[in-house]
Design a protein that fits this description.
single chain; two-stranded antiparallel ribbon
Amino acid sequence: MKTTRSVISAFLLLFFVSPALAQQVDLNKGDLSILKGEKTINIEFTFDKTTVGDDGKEAEYIKRKTQEYNEKEKGSGEIWARKWEEDKQDKFPPKFILGFTNMSKMTVSKDAKYTLIFNTKAIEPGYQVGVTKRNAGIDGTVTIVETANPAKKLIVLSVERPGENKWRGAAFDAGSRIADAYYLSGQKVGKFIAKGGE
């Protein structure tokens, strides 16, 4: 009986987790074969013209959330805004890199021949209120350039978030939810590159 439950649980986990990993990665420009045999890559992150949730411009999202927090407790809004900026540097990139290196089997080095630049176009922070939730997700573009000649775009990929899947994860902290989304994106990009775009 215990074995049957374990098998059913494993099947359900696979069934519900798979859609969460179905993030779309498309090759818009270039030839991934230039990365064949490369063991290292440099990775950088940009947030040019990033939109957040239903607020549109990131600045509008930060303004709204800062006001919301300050209404609850004076000064907490500025603390939240500072943490948001810190997460963009210290929390989100490492998660993407972890997912990417796990799937691509490449290591990250600033001395690598090629640099992968991930620009975040849109962030869905998601929410978790009791049993009601919306998954976090990100859309972005990947540009691969020669580290020594970053002006020339060799490869461009588009990365779109997966559709909603109510069974994926649970985190009450938006930063943790978004970090999870970066991890999934890193996995998909790493796998896409490792398989040469298949």
